[in-house]
Design goal:
152 residues; alpha+beta; Nucleotidyltransferase, domain 5; four-stranded mixed sheet; 5 helices; 4 strands; 18% strand
Length: 152
């Protein structure tokens, strides 16, 4: 028959004292909250046990229901955060409005390349201007396609 191990929790201000008893032994520890206390109780149970499968009853004020309620409330409760400050309309900073600030003039310049990657000065001078120039329109004379030539 399997002997149940009992983990008893006692709150002392913000800290919790855990007493795990079973198999003729009793171990005690402290933890800084009920969640940490539950984790510490698991460690103490491992120290008591021989490995294998054990049944642990967690008690707060002598009640498993009280422990479960306190533990689940702690696990499911959001941490206390300062209240969210909402700025009045019209006072939203530029970075949050989606407006982009113009890039500085230095950003428009090309990055400096190492000498091994730079083109000779003569090639730089012959480069096309930054704005594309439309190509001269040329008319291609209409010729008959091979299929039309065969019919003729």
């Amino acid at each position: 028959m399997v002997e149940a191990i009992t983990a008893t929790y006692v709150q002392e201000n913000a800290d919790w004292t855990i007493t795990v008893s079973g198999r003729g032994k009793e171990l005690t520890a402290k933890a800084p909250g009920i969640i940490a206390a539950r984790d510490r109780a698991d460690q103490l149970v491992e120290e008591l046990g021989e490995g294998g499968r054990t049944t642990v009853v967690h008690l707060l004020n002598g009640s498993a229901l009280d422990f479960t309620s306190a533990y689940m409330t702690a696990r499911l409760t959001l941490p206390k955060l300062p209240p969210l400050e909402v700025p009045p309309p019209g006072s939203v900073p530029k970075q949050q409005t989606g407006e982009q600030t113009p890039a500085p003039a230095s950003a428009e310049k090309k990055p400096v390349l190492p000498p091994s990657k730079q083109l000779p000065k003569a090639v730089e001078d012959r480069k096309a201007p930054a704005e594309p120039v439309p190509a001269a329109e040329t008319k291609i004379p209409k010729t008959k396609t091979p299929a039309k030539q065969a019919r003729a």
